[in-house]
Design goal:
Helix content is 8%, strand content 29%. By secondary structure, the chain is mainly β. It has one domain. The protein has a 3-stranded mixed sheet with strand order 5-4-9, with no helix packed on it. A hairpin with a 4-residue loop joins strand 4 (73-76) and strand 5. The longest helix is centred in the N-terminal third of the chain and has 8 residues, at 21-28. The two termini are 12 Å apart. 32% of the residues are buried.
Length: 154
């Protein structure tokens, strides 16, 4: 299956002040979701004296999509990004160690663990982390790619 374009977030650590407005915006963009944690995480890295962001970078080949037993991670051609169906997650944890960017999290909400990752706020009008960042440290970009492997939805 060949896909030539996808969307992704781009983070500039030089512009980031660590205000975590992006985290708050992410949570507020998903008020009805089962997961009430940010899908982007900002942490200070003292070894390089700057902030780092952990989020889904929308890899060309989504390794976690190949190990999810219920096949809940797929590439959405309409929105040009990898999505995870959180509401059907069985919390097997197979996807978490396969993500080389640590962008898939398990969240124990109300006693039930659920995997989740950035969905670019597609149900809320686009990435709220981008629009909320006062220093424009986060941007959305259309990315060219040779091929995306994994399940594809229309």
């Amino acid at each position: 299956m060949s896909v030539t374009q996808k969307y992704g977030l781009v983070f500039d650590p030089i512009k980031c002040t660590g205000c975590t407005e992006c985290e708050a915006a992410c949570v507020s963009a998903h008020p009805d979701d089962i997961v009430q944690e940010p899908r982007i995480r900002i942490k200070f890295n003292p070894s390089v004296n700057s902030y780092a962001a952990t989020y889904c970078v929308q890899c060309s080949e989504c390794a976690p999509s190949g190990v999810c037993p219920p096949d809940l991670i797929s590439f959405d051609r309409q929105n040009l990004l990898w999505l995870l169906e959180e509401e059907r997650c069985i919390a097997c944890n197979a996807c978490v160690p396969k993500c080389e960017y640590n962008a898939i999290f398990l969240d124990p909400t109300m006693g039930v663990e659920t995997a989740y990752k950035c969905d670019m706020c597609i149900g809320a009008g686009g990435p709220h982390c981008v629009s909320s960042c006062p220093t424009q440290a986060i941007a959305i970009s259309r990315i060219e790619t040779e091929q995306l492997k994994g399940r594809v939805t229309t």
